[in-house]
Amino acid sequence: MSETVPVLPPKSSGNRTGLIAGIVVVALVIVGAIVYFATRGSSDEPAASGGSTPATVVKLGTTDVSQPHWEILKDLAAEENIDLEIVGFSEYTQPNPALTEGEIDLNAFQHILYLADHNNNTGDDLQPIGSTLIVPLPLYSEKHTEVSEFTKGEQVAIPNDATNQARALFVLESAGLITFTGAPKVPTPDDVDTAASTVVVRSVEASQTAGLIGDPDIAGVVVNNNFASDAGFDLDGYVYADDPSSAGAQPYINVIAARPDDVDNPVYQRIVELYHDVTVTDSVVESSGGTAVIVEGYDAAKLQQVLKDTQANLKAAG
After folding, report:
1. Which of 63, 180, 192, 269 is deepest in the core (most CB within 10 A)?
2. Residue 284 to residues 18, 177, 217, 317: CA-CA distances in angstroms?
3. What letter would DSSP give residue 192?
4. What is the model's pTM?
């Protein structure tokens, strides 16, 4: 009896080829889709964890927004991904309150004495974080070309405002034209020892000092840089000017100020450093007619100590 041997159906070579082709087509479609979406995502939309870092925005307030050095400073800051916005104010009374209220992050318009007076009067605690410049306060005269030419009893006009009067008196003392009865921290004309002094001090409104240069009763005038410039003075033609590096001139160092919690902010400190870039400082000096002196060597801590001392001196002087 013969056994029936099972026979397998013959293999179909055509079906195998179709299966393989189908697998290949599906694979190509998947690869194509991956490439398409990867390419589309990289060109049309930023990656979730990639892209450029947003610039840090810093608002700095000033009363001389039109000065060209601010644009130079802005460009330098932009190179370091800092978007520095220069905010203009029309009056000196505005930038400090704006800083206190957080409308701006920094300001740069005042010297330390002005800041000290503001803090004392308002209870604010704004702090300097960097120095900018100081402008010497000069003594001009149409009658004399040397300090030694002034004679006993001649009058010298000085500004009478609290910000500049003490400094003007220090200028005359440094020039050897007056002597104080004591050692006042914030002198007034009452502190002048008339008998021991060469000249007599006449206090007038700061805006009037330049106009007295030709007065026959006035031998000299101590004039702020802006009033001297407006009056057409030869800014280099002064008889005497204070030394910006002297201790008496320290309260008149102009500063960049911040709120007390921001004195160590690294971005703000970097802006101070960029201000001292030679391209910025050269522009500052040029705009001042060569009278401005860039103040170096004062870190934030030293400036804050000068402010503290100045505030104490103002309080003591009443």
Report:
1. 192
2. 81, 32, 36, 34
3. B
4. 0.73
- The residue type found at 153 is G
Q: Do 255 and 263 touch, CB atoms closer than 8 A? A: no
Q: Which residues contact 13 (CB under 8 A, 6 or more apart)?
A: none
Three-class SS state of 87: strand
In sequence order, what are the residues at sequence separation of 6 or more whose Cβ sits closer than 8 angstroms to the Cβ of residue 126?
96, 99, 100, 115, 118, 119, 257, 258, 259, 260
Under a CB-based contact definition with an 8 Å cutoff, are residues 140 and 223 in contact? Answer: yes
- Sign of the alpha-carbon dihedral angle for 91, 96, 102, 107: positive
| Interatomic CA distance for residues 123 and 259, integer angstroms | 13
Give the Cα separation of 207 and 10 in Å (integer): 115
From first to last of its 318 residues, what are the pLDDT tens digits of the chain?
433 333 333 434 444 444 333 433 334 333 343 333 333 343 333 333 345 899 999 999 999 999 999 999 999 999 999 999 999 998 889 999 999 999 999 999 999 999 999 999 999 999 999 999 998 899 999 999 999 999 999 999 999 987 789 899 999 999 999 999 999 988 999 999 999 999 999 999 988 999 999 999 999 999 988 788 889 999 889 999 988 777 778 999 999 999 999 999 999 999 999 999 999 999 999 988 888 999 999 999 999 999 999 999 999 887
At residue 131, the 3 state secondary structure works out as: strand
| Nearest in space to 132 (alpha carbons), one of 63, 182, 83, 199 | 63
Residues 6+ apart with CB under 8 A from 56: 81, 82, 83, 267
Rounded to whole angstroms, how far apart are CA atoms 138 and 142? 13
Residue with tokens 């008149």: 252
CB 73 within 8 A of CB 276: no
Structure tokens at 214: 């030709």
Least Cα distance to 108 among 258, 256, 266, 276 occurs for: 256
